[in-house]
Amino acid sequence: MDKPVMKVVADKLTLQLAALSPAQIRAAGMLASGIRAREVSAALKVAPETVSRWRQTIPEFEALINLFVQETIDATRAGLHDLSAQATAELGKLLKSESEATRIKAIQLIFDTVTARFDMKGPDGYLMTDPDAIAESRASSARMSELIKGLTRTEKSPKSQY
């Protein structure tokens, strides 16, 4: 996030926090973490209706909950991105393995993952709406799967002694 965007977020957060009591800030964090409103009200020693009223009548309260949830989502995405980079590096190592069976398995894993993700998308990245294009995509995927299975069978067959 660049500095101007961070400044806008910080300013919004400051305004939201200034409009809320410490109990409301704590409640927003608890609700954003998945704790039920009834449990939040018990922990804060307020009536359940109070927490409900805060959500319904104080936009800054709801906005703070959303901000906490978005921060969690962003942190999760960043963590998944890091794990994806590590997994990609490991797959790269497997593709360079001395074992042909390991290389074929790595290729198959990559192909299966890409196929599952992009099977219904056209070259432009949008979902396919042309039935003929969908049929051709499926046929192409089936041909590639058969090719990989053939390579796997070849790897497993005994080597010729000639």
Which H/E pattern describes the elements? HHHHHHH
Radius of gyration of CA atoms, rounded to a whole number: 26 Å
User: What is the terminal-to-terminal distance?
Assistant: 63 Å
Could you say how many structural domains there are in total? 2
CATH architecture of the largest domain: Orthogonal Bundle
CATH class of the largest domain reads: Mainly Alpha
What fraction of the residues are assigned to beta strands by DSSP? under 5%
Helix residue percentage: over 70%
Overall pLDDT metric:
80
The number of helical runs is 7
Biggest sheet overview: none
Number of E-type strands: 0
Low-confidence segments: none
Could you characterize the architecture of this molecule?
The chain is mainly α and 162 residues long. It folds into two domains: 3-75, Arc Repressor Mutant, subunit A; 97-156. 78% of the residues lie in helices and 0% in strands. It contains seven helices and no strands. It has helices at residues 3-18, 22-32, 37-44, 48-57, 59-95, 100-118, 131-156. Helix 6 (100-118) packs antiparallel against helix 7 (131-156). It is elongated. The model has no long low-confidence stretch (mean pLDDT 80).
